[in-house]
Q: What sequence folds into this?
């Protein structure tokens, strides 16, 4: 089940001066749109390998992808909750042509960004990445300011029919912690502006709206539609 964000929240996000992402620190506002801003910025050659490692999680993985779209997300970011629905639409529309990769960018300013990323990663170990992401986004207000969220995330896993003992073990494992930390380091090395960030064929897209056209238009261009 996909979540529905409160209409007032959506309105606030969309009209706040063109801001379409969570900034990377509490002192840094999210990027704003500019008429002179480029549509995309190429990833530096020495960082290309950090965009989509071979073991990165995929939402779609066709045998012969014509393009690769990488989402860097923060599960405590409200813009990422909106973007997740757009990614699901892109999966439906482009899944047989485009490899869609999802990676973690848990902003240090968000109290439970790292723990929620671990929850989604732990669910991914049982094939439920997208389902857990949807639940975590849907209940964002319930856990974002909690001191201890592990039991709550375990309850989500139980609702999804996961093996909760394995989920808890993976959630606390060094492997999952290291995966999330590596994703964060890669996002920082790529100098991504905030969350969500989209990288299409090794070019960082400049998001000027949280609207499906932000994905569909560059994808159509990349696919020569």
A:
């Amino acid at each position: 089940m996909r979540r529905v964000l409160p209409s007032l929240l959506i309105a606030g996000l969309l009209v706040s001066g063109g801001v379409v992402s969570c900034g990377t620190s509490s002192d840094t506002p999210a990027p704003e749109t500019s008429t002179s801003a480029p549509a995309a910025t190429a990833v530096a050659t020495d960082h290309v390998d950090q965009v989509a490692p071979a073991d990165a999680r995929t939402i779609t993985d066709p045998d012969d992808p014509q393009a690769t779209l990488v989402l860097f997300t923060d599960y405590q970011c409200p813009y990422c909750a909106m973007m997740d629905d757009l990614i699901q639409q892109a999966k439906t529309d482009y899944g047989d042509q485009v490899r869609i990769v999802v990676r973690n960018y848990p902003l240090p300013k968000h109290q439970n960004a790292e723990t929620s990323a671990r929850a989604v990663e732990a669910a991914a170990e049982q094939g439920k990445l997208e389902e857990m992401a949807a639940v975590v986004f849907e209940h964002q207000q319930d856990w974002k300011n909690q001191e201890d969220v592990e039991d709550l995330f375990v309850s989500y896993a139980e609702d999804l029919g996961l093996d909760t003992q394995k989920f808890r073990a993976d959630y606390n494992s060094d492997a999952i912690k290291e995966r999330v930390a590596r994703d964060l380091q890669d996002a920082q090395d790529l100098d991504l502006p905030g969350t969500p960030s989209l990288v299409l064929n090794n070019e960082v897209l400049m998001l000027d709206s949280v609207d499906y056209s932000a994905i569909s238009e560059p994808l159509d261009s990349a696919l020569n539609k």
About this structure: The first strand starts at residue 22 and ends at 23. The chain has nine helices and eight strands. Confidence is low (pLDDT under 50) at residues 1-19, 27-37. Residues 78-94 form the longest helix (17 residues).
